[in-house]
Amino acid sequence: MKKIFVLMVLIFTCFSGFSVYAQGILTAAAFFQNVSAEYGKIEDYEADVSIKTAKKVMEGHVNFKRPNLLRIDFTKPDNQVICFNGDLLTIYLPESAAILNQTVESSGTGSAASLATAQGLSLMSRYYSVAYESGQEAVPLEDGSTENVVKLVLSRRNTSEAFRYINLAILPESKLIRRIEAITPQNEKFQFDFSNYSINQGISDQRFIYDPPTSANNYNNFLFTEQ
């Protein structure tokens, strides 16, 4: 569960991929490329984020800066932080007084770092097929919602991928991602909702320097440690 959650965090922050802007008939794949082209113009963004699983709801504020800087400051759970500075992933869990650190190699297409790049998104396009969930017209985000989105379904092409499906809800005018739903082979669902975007505000690299409390216990390279 923990490894899948961290994997998804790295994925959702970095939809900054493709340089090709599709022309002609707006197939689902072409629409996805259009969305990727818009994200390719983004140097940084911040937004409110909600993360839901079957057992937990988390809320916070996310900051992202290209190529792979990420910070999420949570209000639920209060004071929890996830920070990735390009080399080190740090997760502070105040309820456990624990700091989880993971060094990420900068080379190698199979490393976790490759997910936090444009190349990582390109690999997703290679290994997942893209289709409209209900056509190219915008539909309500969910039952009873007045917010309309274009819904895409990414289906894995082989069983080695971590998620069986990735559902995307796209704001039709801005082409920003409103919601991500990732479903594992065990039918576990991870839902990420984004709102109140601020784009290209010139976020400083200093924002991604995080000094966790010295009183907390450190656990290094936790992704490769069996708990």
UniProtKB/TrEMBL annotation:
Keyword Nucleotide-binding: no
Keywords: Lipoprotein, Signal
Transmembrane segments: none
Top-level taxon in the UniProt lineage: Bacteria
Keyword DNA-binding appears in the UniProt entry: no
PANTHER family attached to this UniProt entry: OUTER-MEMBRANE LIPOPROTEIN CARRIER PROTEIN
Name of the protein: Outer membrane lipoprotein-sorting protein
Organism, scientific name: Treponema berlinense
